[in-house]
Amino acid sequence: MTETATLSLTDVPQVYKRHVFACFQQRPPTHPRGSCGAAGAQPLWERLGKQIEATGQRDIVMTATGCMGFCQAGPIMVVYPEGVWYQPRTPEDVDEIVTTHLVGGTLVERLVIVPRI
Amino acid sequence: MTETATLSLTDVPQVYKRHVFACFQQRPPTHPRGSCGAAGAQPLWERLGKQIEATGQRDIVMTATGCMGFCQAGPIMVVYPEGVWYQPRTPEDVDEIVTTHLVGGTLVERLVIVPRI
């Protein structure tokens, strides 16, 4: 009898320490669903990208996404592997998320949202 | 003295059981970097979306992304919270990822890639 060793989900080497997904969906300002773009996401995500780069940590990255839902809560971003959703409103909020969560590993509780599906 | 109870990263309720990010980056076929789009991603991701919807599980979702890097390895997708990267080549590969990993919670080892940063 031969046994085949099988990798489990948790055996796979991690590529990133933290992978941030930021919604770049843009709808017209009058669109009834709203959008992260209409809520002012773009300058915040530009700052997010710059601040992540400034950490010098190559295992912390940001990826641009299309709509992740929860459009009324925008601008929204989610940090994995923790699955923490944030709603930053100002450049200072972005900086705090980078410093405290992405680098420091501590939750920025005041900016957390828990979207309902 | 007052102590403030602080939530830790793992205390935050999870929105999704599995969140799939699929790269929709499209560059011209002759572009030296390549792209997931040029590697045939679009029909695979269309199927991925349909098959996820067909599971009826609202806590398994897919989000479209821009470039996640590793363009030569495309089409690529990553499943969080596990942080497992896959390179499906056929519709059957996509179906297997949905059934085995997203729903079943077991790795599809033959389709895993571990990109180097």
If you had to describe this structure to a student in words, what would you say it looks like?
The structure is a homodimer of 117-residue chains. Chain A is of the alpha+beta class and 117 residues long. Chain A has one domain: 3-Layer(aba) Sandwich (Glutaredoxin), CATH 3.40.30.10. In chain A, 24% of the residues lie in helices and 18% in strands. Chain A is built from two helices and five strands; from the N terminus they run βαβββαβ. The first copy, chain A, has helices at 41-55, 91-103, and strands spanning 18-23, 60-65, 77-80, 84-86, 112-113. The first copy, chain A, has a five-stranded mixed sheet, covered by helices on one side. The longest helix of chain A has 15 residues, at 41-55. Chain A is globular and about 55 Å long. The relative contact order of chain A is 0.20. Chains A, B: Its cofactor is FMN. Chains A, B: GO terms for molecular function: iron-sulfur cluster binding; metal ion binding. Chains A, B: Keywords: Iron, Iron-sulfur, Metal-binding. Chains A, B: This is Ferredoxin. Chains A, B: InterPro entries: Thioredoxin-like_sf.
Spatially, the strands of the biggest sheet of chain A line up as 2-1-3-4-5
Major sheet of chain A: 5 strands, mixed
Query: Over all CA atoms, what is the radius of gyration of chain A?
Result: 17 Å
Order of helices and strands of chain A: EHEEEHE
Query: Helicity range of the residues of chain A?
Result: 10-25%
If interface size is counted as residues with C-beta under 8 Å from the partner's C-beta, which chains form the largest one?
Answer: A-B, 40 and 40 residues
User: Which blocks of ≥5 consecutive residues of chain A have pLDDT under 50?
Assistant: none
Whole-number count of domains of chain A: 1
Oligomer state of the chains in this structure = homodimer
Mean pLDDT of chain A: 93
Shape, principal axes of CA atoms of chain A: globular
